[in-house]
Design a protein that fits this description.
about 280 residues, Alpha-Beta Plaits, 2 domains, eight-stranded mixed beta sheet, 12 strands
Length: about 280
């Protein structure tokens, strides 16, 4: 659609240029989205939570969504041309409570459980007992490592090691490897200073994102563009699965399969505000 589509996407082009410069939003990304949303087209937006909507912080409990960001998400979720999903490694109930926006699809434990906006899914092969057994072994394995902390999520158990001394991180990795050898029914998902142990069922954020997109897109008028935004190694599965089928955005500089990269959480917030304007 070229320049006219980009102009139609934002009711105030001068403000858009100022925001773009201040937030360093990639012009190629904005042009791609402006073309995708032209002529009244629809959007399925799938977003990670930690490191994408909220900054990475010392304790997962402290990762709180800013009220202004919640308001922007609510505006997007209520738009008739948008379906919004939040896909996280957190437990489903946890991410739903932290975001707290209606008409949103929430995915927990890397998509092993999904609910909201009329969708309900729990992977049929995911057995909590496998993860519970791994949790017991892991608790014993890291008991003597200061700073190591376990978090139970139902369909996953997380080992956080952000506060473990660098000299002892190798012990954490070895503990995880020992537990996996003893519990071959679980997989290890590495993230930002965390290892998630989940049932080995051949499921990840990529498959979950595709499952969500295939069910949300038909609910929208006309052709829908899928947008996926995430910051972690776990999101690379989605970037790979959605390559050529979606607009994919990696948050933070790192080798990635995503088509676009933005600097950080602040830029994600700016992108969400831009989308609100583009859909107006």
């Amino acid at each position: 659609m070229g320049r006219p589509a980009a102009q139609r996407a934002d009711p105030d082009p001068a403000r858009s240029r100022r925001d773009q410069g201040r937030l360093s939003l990639p012009p190629r990304l904005l042009a791609r989205l402006a073309r995708a949303l032209g002529s009244g087209r629809a959007l399925v937006a799938i977003l990670d939570y930690d490191g994408t909507l909220t900054p990475i912080v010392g304790s997962p409990r402290a990762a709180r969504l800013a009220p202004a960001v919640r308001a922007t998400l609510a505006t997007l979720a209520a738009h008739p041309r948008v379906r919004l999903a939040i896909l996280s490694g957190r437990a489903l109930a946890d991410v739903r409570r932290r975001v707290g926006v209606p008409r949103v699809v929430y995915g927990g434990c890397h998509g092993l459980e999904i609910g909201g906006a009329g969708l309900a899914f729990r992977h049929p092969a995911a057995r909590r007992a496998r993860v519970a057994a791994a949790r017991r072994l892991l608790a014993a394995a890291v008991r003597g490592i200061p700073g190591a902390r376990l978090e139970w999520k139902g369909l996953a158990v997380s080992l956080h090691y952000r506060h473990v001394a660098a000299a002892r991180v190798g012990e954490v990795r070895e503990a995880v490897a020992r537990v996996q050898r003893r519990q071959p029914g679980v997989s290890v998902v590495a993230g930002h200073k965390v290892f998630d142990l989940v049932p080995r069922v051949g499921w990840d954020k990529g498959r979950a994102a595709r499952w969500i997109a295939r069910r949300l897109a038909p609910r929208l008028p006309g052709r829908a563009t899928v947008l996926y935004v995430g910051d972690d190694t776990t999101d690379e599965a989605a970037f790979t699965v959605l390559r050529g089928r979606a607009v994919t955005v990696r948050v933070g500089a790192a080798p990635t399969a995503a088509g676009h990269v933005v600097r950080g959480v602040r830029e994600v917030h700016g992108l969400l505000r831009w989308l609100v304007g583009a859909l107006a």
